[in-house]
Amino acid sequence: SKKNKSSIIRENQFTYFANWYYSAIRELVSIIYWGNDYRILANSVYPKITPKQAEKAVKLLVDLGMIKKMPSGRYIQIKKTITFDDRVTSLAMQKCQKQTIELGLLNLENVKNEYRDISTLTLRVSEEGFYRTKEEIKHFKEKLIGIINSDEATDRVYQINIQLFPVSKILKE
Question: Residues of 20-39 as b/e, b for ≥16 C-beta within 10 angstroms?
């Protein structure tokens, strides 16, 4: 069921959005063995973060109940995917989204095309077309989550940004 695979971020957990790399660390800790060496973990993040930042991220993720340390020393995710409570502070979410958009620019400039997919569309739409497009984006994200939830042999972490924003004013005759 969806509840078993998904964890809801509550309003008091908005700290999760303070830094883009918290979500990257959440994914990384369960796919690499880093033996509690925060240098290895920090160097596995792109762009690289400091060992102190990696340590702080792991502590936060454990405190939030998103990951846990197993007796073997490895970490696992408590839930594969996270959904967000509508009451999550929008400013915190905006800060995180701004950081991931900036990461997209960094990747555009520094990562070979074969390791990324960044594309753009500029479209003219009606108000109805806009809302239908937003609905399709929602369905697309749900489909991606399904693909990722069934992907067992993970070996990397990717960020997906889907952007739909105006580049003109609303023009009425």
Answer: bbbbbbbbbbeebebeeebe
